[in-house]
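Lab meeting notes turned into a lecture example. A postdoc, R.K., suggested we walk through two folding results consecutively so the class can see how the record format repeats. The first protein's sequence and structure tokens come next.
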Amino acid sequence: MTATTDIVPDSERSGLIGVLPPRLRPFASLMRLDRPIGSWLLYWPCAWSVALAGVGGRWDLFLWLALGAFAMRSAGCVYNDIVDRELDKKVERTRLRPLASGRVSVRSAWVLTALLCAVGLVVLLQLDLVAALVALASIAPVAAYPFMKRITWWPQAWLGLVFSWGALVGWPAVMGILSWTPLLLWLGSIAWVIGYDTLYAIQDMEDDALVGVKSSARRLGEKGPAGIAMFYALAVTLWGAAIWSVRPDWIALMALIPAALHLANQALRADPKDGELALKLFRSNRTCGLLVFLAMLVVGLSSR
């Protein structure tokens, strides 16, 4: 075993991962069990869509979609690390990841990916046929995502495409059909993801420049806060349009005010030179997702 494989990141010595048997810790690290924020961010568009559809008595969908978001986000992280293992070796923040450091074999990582996808399949079987087919259609763009940072300055836009896909699944899971409403939710979520993932990318700007990885944070540079504000404003506008399509009432739009204020605070505080603050603001989007969910739930239930 090389010296590199003997080094274990601090995240595997404490918290949820730290209580697991040592042999399982690298696999838990691959799944990012110490960073559940990704599962939350993948889950919220699913929950928004179900809520705005009025739930339709399918309260169990919130739990099934939460399980699906956890499984598929974890599978996506493992797959991303498989693809990026050589790049990860060159970046300070990622060089100790299990695949980059050699603590987990590529074969074992693929087996873990398959097991997590099997959990996703169980969730898929709980959905209406239309919703299940829409969910399956996400496989191709998800598979393409890790390569986007090599070919475009806007991999955050592609991440938005796939991380928002649940907005297209939740609505037909309740209503049985697709419509303009989930499409507007999806487009709004894409703008939201571009905004918050630009924040996330700020912390890696120097390392990304060294290894040639592209990102919206690098593209925007000092204009990053203005770009984030623009995408957040677009997100709120599109969410408002989705609400209007269900309940054309100005009072209904007021449900989005808490989320809009939360996003405005993020944009105003963003600093392209402060990676630590950017990470803190990024993580606060878990709360933003909750605020949007409450808005969609109030409107959805009051419109049925």
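The second example is placed directly after the first for contrast:
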Amino acid sequence: MDTELRETEALGKRLDWKPAAAPGRQRLAGRYAEVVPVDPGRHAHDLFEASHGAGGDPAIWNYLGYGPFADEASFTTWLAERAASTDPLFFAILDRATGQALGMASYLRIVPADGVIEIGHIWLAPALQRTRLATEAIFLMARHAFETLGNRRFEWKCNALNAPSRRAAIRFGFTFEGVFRQHMIVKGRNRDTAWYAMIDRDWPAIREAFEAWLDPGNFDADGRQRRPLAAREAAGASPL
């Protein structure tokens, strides 16, 4: 093999590629959940009550760079700043049955030229955690990232100490790619960051696993799942 051919192979196969679209402030609707652009006028009170009220949990904020908030006014000010941002682009997660906002997520580190987008700034009020709504919200954002926007890579990053987030990433079909040591300083503390991702060739099987899990027939009369979400296995990993 001559030097030129080796160099060509090392560069990899040339892609038939066009840049992804940038996300906009679209509403993403599912059977149980809606993911909508965050609006302080519509969502601030619900989000504050769900996270800081009687049913809230301060631990929501342990691994985020903000929160908890002293009062609803300061939370609303913060939310207005988030609503004005385009990267991160923030969304509220709503219970479709009630219209109540119970959590947030965002697209961030958006690089259409490379077809890369991340989901982050995820926080779920206790009423949203471990529900069909929460799982469907992640599915809606992943589906939009791949199928509507045309991305090649969908990323999930979290504090390496955040065990619930790491379990969630695996459950949703993301592949663990490593830990970036001393990656950030958050609230005066070191953050090693665990990196996860799924890529476009993983997505069809992961989508099928999500759809099977979200089907109403997968839940009994009390709302308990009959079969666990198998997105990890769909992505080619061994079962947990």
